[in-house]
Amino acid sequence: MKKTIYKYQPGFDDRLEIMAPEDSKLLDVQIQGGRLTFWYLVDPKKPLVPYNFAIFGTGHPVDIADEDFRHVATVQEMNGQLVWHCFELLTQR
Known about the structure:
Number of strands: 7
Structural class: mainly beta
Helix content: under 10%
Largest sheet: 4 strands, antiparallel
Radius of gyration: 14 Å
Order of helices and strands: EEEEEEE
Strand order of the largest sheet: 2-5-7-6
Number of domains: 1
């Protein structure tokens, strides 16, 4: 079974949903061209499912205490002036 690397640029918000093939593996999250970008290793033949994320800036309140989550990346933009912390919300998968 061949897999492919896809990128997703969902926009920038406190909560994000990415529709990617089932069982996709998140490879990385970075800023590319001024946009928050997620790279996944996918099997494009599988059905699409939602992957949900919460994004918080350093020093901002984190309101996901009651949800299962995992930290997936910390990304910087504007030469480190803005720092964002990305969490995948596992309970919404």
